[in-house]
Design goal:
With 106 residues, this protein is mostly beta strands. It has one domain. It is built from 1 helix and 5 strands. Strands 1, 2, 3, 4 and 5 form a 5-stranded antiparallel sheet that branches. The termini are far apart.
């Protein structure tokens, strides 16, 4: 389902400067991409809870820097995360009622 919702192909290339973790600014370019597959990572916790996690990539940026050990360009990826949680019945609690947190005007 998510694959259909997020199947995106970008059709533009944008030049920009980005700041690296070391504080240096470098030239970079937003790279066109097409989503081929986005799978869920699934984790079963010792208490029986199952977490499903997926990162959805929104931007891929290629810098003009190169990895000295491989010679490959260095990429930065911007993404958003989706988390699904399936909790065993014995760990569930009813939601607590919220107090009225209105603002007093006086």
């Amino acid at each position: 389902m998510w694959e259909k919702l997020f199947k995106v192909r970008w059709h533009h290339s944008v030049k920009m400067k980005i700041r690296l973790p070391n504080g240096r600014e470098v030239e970079a370019e937003q790279v066109d991409f097409e989503v081929v597959r986005e799978d869920w990572n699934e984790y079963k916790l010792e208490d029986g809870t199952v977490l499903k996690f997926k990162a959805i990539v929104t931007d891929i940026i290629r810098t003009e820097e190169y990895d000295p050990s491989t010679g490959n360009p260095i990429y930065h990826v911007r993404s958003t995360n989706i988390l699904r949680v399936k909790v065993p019945e014995h760990l569930r609690r009813l939601p607590s009622k919220r107090k009225n947190e209105g603002v007093e005007v006086g």
